[in-house]
Amino acid sequence: MSANKVKLEGVYPILATPFTDSGEVDEGSLRELVRFQLHAKVDGIALFGMASEMYTLLDDEKAAIAEIVVDEVKGQVPLVFGSGHTGLETAVQLSKRAEKAGADALMVLPPYMAKPDGARLYDYFAAVAQAVEVPIMIQDAPLASGVNMPAALLARLSKEFENISYVKVEAPPTAPKVSEVLEQSDGRLTVFGGMNGLYFYEELARGAVGTMPACEFPEVCVKIYQAFKAGDFDTARRTFYQYLPFMRIGTLPGYAMAVHKEVLKAGGVIESAYVRNPNAPIDDRIRKEVFDTLKDLDLLALKWKQAQRA
Question: Which end of the chain is more exposed for a tag (fewer CB within 10 A), N or C?
Fold first, then answer.
């Protein structure tokens, strides 16, 4: 698919990878999780991001997950595959595989082991851009990668490579960075937010076109986005601040993946909250703290089985 065939905007949750209690990929839960996203009327789905525990997945598991998700989605919404790596050659290979597997766009994290200088960063993204035809979203996530992506470099890459057309801004403070990227790229770059939606409302107000949060509260993000887009800023702002404590607790270092999965499991979206090492399962205290943030709130994930029977 050429770079001008898909336009990304709206809510693109990062799909978790459901495992069984013994640690294997759970196909049934994965299919149910995709159905849950589609039921919430998401605009697209992203695979193999940080919230997918992508750094724990084997190559054959990634191939199987991609096949399952493509089969379940059946072209209803665009799919964005994470294809970054800590080395240039592997990132190029992963990006080619993702394009062939059905990705409509790629989300590419910079190298995150040996920290690259500006020249190495440019060469890395240039190589990926030249290897594929689908649009590329650069993931600007220094808290995860340890690599800073200057707005000037993002603007240069977008100017020299037509398919580098998106940035996922996760560099705090994200709202000013959204403005900086848009201004320096002269409109060539389209910006999404991340960081589990922590600054979603502010990012939209700065010109971001969507967000890529974790996947246990898609209908909340959809409501915020649709209200904002319709000019109902009061509803967008009020909904955002109602759920902000829940979004915040979904970023607990070391436990975030387990938080996402515990919520999905509680309502029957997935069967197990198992997370792979180095992620840690949550204990009863953290579990109580998580669900305390949802008191008096209406979350689809917690009533999923009921919604399916209705």
Answer: C
Q: Which residues contact 126 (CB under 8 A, 6 or more apart)?
A: 157, 160, 161
| Domain segments of the chain as ranges | 10-237
The whole-angstrom separation of Cα 53 and Cα 15 is: 9
φ, ψ dihedrals at 134, nearest 5°? -70, 160
Distance between CA 255 and CA 273 in Å, rounded?
11
Helices (H) and strands (E) in the chain, counts: 13, 8
Q: Does residue 307 have a pLDDT over 70?
A: yes
Q: Which CATH superfamily is domain 10-237 in?
A: Aldolase class I (3.20.20.70)
Bridge-partner residues for 107, per DSSP? 82, 137
Omega before residue 278 within 30° of 0, cis: yes
Q: Is the pTM of this model over 0.70?
A: yes
Q: Which residue matches tokens 């964005």?
A: 80
